Amino acid sequence: MLLAQGQLTGSRAGVGTDLSGLHYNLENGLPASILGGMGSGLTYAGGNVFLAVPDRGPNATPYNSAVDDTSSYISRFHTLTMTLTASAGGSLPFTLTPELQRTTLLWSPSELIYGSGAGLGTKIDGTPLGSGAPVVNSAGHYYFSGRSDNFGAGTSGNPLNGRFDPEAIRVSNDGKTVFVSDEYGPYVRQFDRATGALIKTFELPKNLDVAKLSPNGQTEINKNTEGRVANKGMEGLAITPDGKTLVGIMQAALEQDADKAGKLVRIVTIDIATGETHEYGYKLTTGSGVSEIVAVNDHQFLVDERDGKGLGDGSTAVAKQLFLVDIKGATDITALSGKAALNAAIAKSSTPFLDLVAALAKQGVTGANVPAKIEGVSFGQDVTYGGATYHTLYLANDNDFVPATAGPNQFYVFGFRDKDLPGYVAQSVAAAPIPEPGVWASLIAGLGVIGARLRRRRRVALA
To answer: How many whole angstroms separate alpha carbon 64 and alpha carbon 120?
Structure first.
């Protein structure tokens, strides 16, 4: 049952602005601190705290097709509080109040590869596009960003590439680190939760990578016959309740799996301690792709299967459904492709565990007003209603940083009982660690250096 819904349209820093502290404009003229897209990934972090990740930035604003309108928007995650309060006479049992508490930028202590911008046209003001390196980079602080030309030699899995398109986030059981998956590599990277510093990039199966890279997605698709399809990489990421295994899912079929026999999407499990991986097949039912996966226990998962229709697309939503799957005893398809891989697809519920379009229709929400991109899914804290205990499931949308078209950052909270999802095991997440004084001093000093650098650049520009 739908328990609550809420919107986040601003922050304590001001409407439309996040808490990154960035005070400059991107190549497309938009502010580097623009708020939006945070429903690309959502994860529970204990209490009433959640972490949300926006994708590669505001590329729905056209300015340069050579780089797919991407900018040097720095990859980041947001810390939110989601306060549920009993509703007095409202249409729903609870009122949800989301509030942005913190924005954490993601960076590497080692140098990353960025594009030069040469031959790729101009910025919004007509000046040469320039390097894809974020202007706030400094020695020992190299930020990941959404610029599609930030790559070097080798395959798309080169861990030194600076381009990053975050699509899912999960937190470790000790609360100290976060895991983020993306579409460019695809990558799964581990970051320090307090500072945003890169800890590790996991090595994924090579059959997910593409060999011929381009800053333009369609060009990249045309050049490759194997690997992930551009902009449809590792869209979802789960972590098992014991905190030992990451489970990623691709948005669409790999190039070598895209045959007429069906729609195969690959699930990749990663042992966090050893790095060992396995691949399993998921067969699409009604949706055009998958946007998220969340763990029910160590072998069952909910998969968010959806179409791209609804608010933001100018059409009517049809498929926004969560299916229950089980990988226990499933066939590893790492060495398989096409029909052979499809025939080994894992077990899946015959009907959806949750149909969002149908559920919202009961609240008078038409298909045209259901967000097109429902991408963030996470279990949350238990609540009591009518004398019974309900587990909560949160869903969030990616509004592509264009709230006027795709609506605000929207959150839906559903409640379910043990009988609705037998075998459900909640992830136990420790309280967020408090950074040591030295860490805070380093962060403050870093902000001071950034501010000084930007002031120097501004003076040079004025001169």
So the answer is: 8
CB atoms under 10 Å from CB of 34, counted, come to 22
Position 262 scores a pLDDT of 64
Mapping DSSP to helix (H, G, I), strand (E, B) and coil, where does residue 346 land? Answer: coil
pLDDT score for 16: 78
Task: State the Cα–Cα distance between residues 308 and 213, nearest whole angstrom.
Answer: 25
Whole-number Å distance between alpha carbons of 283 and 429? 31
Residues of the chain with confidence (pLDDT) below 70: 10-15, 260-262, 432-463
Query: Burial, 225: exposed, middle or buried (Cβ in 10 Å; 0-12, 13-18, 19+)?
Result: exposed
Measured CA to CA, the distance from residue 366 to residue 231 in angstroms comes to 28
Per-residue pLDDT at 14: 47
Cβ partners under 8 Å of residue 329, min gap 6: none
DSSP assignment of 170-229? EE-TTSSEEEEEESSS--EEEEETTT-BEEEEPPPPGGG--SS--SSHHHHHHH-SSSPP
Spatial distance between the Cα atoms of 235 and 252, rounded to a whole number of angstroms: 9
Identify the pLDDT of residue 449: 47
- Residues 134 and 407: their CA atoms lie apart, in Å, by 28
Give the strand pairing for 320-326 and 300-306.
antiparallel
| pLDDT at position 11 | 56
Three-state DSSP state, 338: helix
Task: List, as own/partner pairs, every contact residues 451-459 make where C-beta atoms lie below 8 angstroms and the sequence separation is at least 24, other chains included.
Answer: 453/135, 453/136, 453/138, 454/23, 454/24, 454/135, 454/136, 457/135
Tallying the residues shown for the chain, one arrives at: 463
The tokens describing 110, both together, are: 């080692």
